[in-house]
């Protein structure tokens, strides 16, 4: 098994704005981080998780074991905008920014808590994240939304790539033993590190995985050399593992590259990765090969 472990992980941030339907006046009423819940990390392995926004009047401090707001007032699945991208300079991270809209009159009152998750707007639980609304000094506060105001909640989820290599020694491939060096790839490209956030974690097929006879590159690039496409097979998610596994099966006529397989490039819904093999794998037309891959996730720790 070759492990591609995201050492940093995911973090989220809320911004809340109101727009008066009569005057058009807009106000940013709050901007603050959130706590990604255990239920949210688990949901990443089984389904979409940024589908609904919920606001309420609860005041308990967020804990990782929570699954719903204390006192829900309103929910919405209306997405006004969805953008994604990646930072071009350190610290590297991909991001997805979703604007949820509460129509005027639906989130009226004093709000003190907010969360995003999945399910439908009538469901109280299924939260990916929860936060108390904070003031500019980082203290819990309540905001007042009037009956003639539209409330927009902007949720930004960030995915931080691993900055150090994961080295797997003694990788036994049956006829030979290798060292595998796992490294992030294309970390400045939002198509790989931001666009798929909110989707179930899995390895992406349709030949997004490829084998090469060249070496791996820096974390901003991909492997070099001649390539041969392949499709990984996703395995069922193991409860509480926060890990997605897949098998890459290469038949007799697959990936028989001159000089052997020196590297692999694979895309997941939580990033793109490259793996270097030393020595190169001597894959020929008389030999099949199976590579077992896995990617893991967790909360970002600065």
Describe what you observe in this structure.
By secondary structure, this protein is mostly beta strands. Helix content is 3%, strand content 47%. The chain is built from two helices and 22 strands. A six-stranded antiparallel beta sheet has the order 14-15-21-20-16-17, with no helix packed on it. Strands 3-2-13-8-7 form a five-stranded antiparallel beta sheet. The longest helix is centred in the first third of the chain and has 6 residues, at 38-43. The radius of gyration is 22 Å and the shape is elongated. The mean pLDDT is 94.
SSE inventory with pairings:
Elements: E1 2-5, E2 9-20, E3 26-33, E4 35-36, H1 38-43, E5 52-56, E6 72-76, E7 79-86, E8 94-102, E9 109-111, E10 113-117, E11 127-132, E12 143-145, E13 149-160, E14 166-172, E15 177-185, H2 190-193, E16 209-212, E17 227-230, E18 233-234, E19 243-250, E20 261-268, E21 271-281, E22 289-296
Parallel strand pairs: 1-22
Antiparallel strand pairs: 2-3, 2-13, 4-11, 5-6, 5-10, 7-8, 8-13, 9-12, 10-11, 14-15, 15-21, 16-17, 16-20, 18-19, 19-22, 20-21
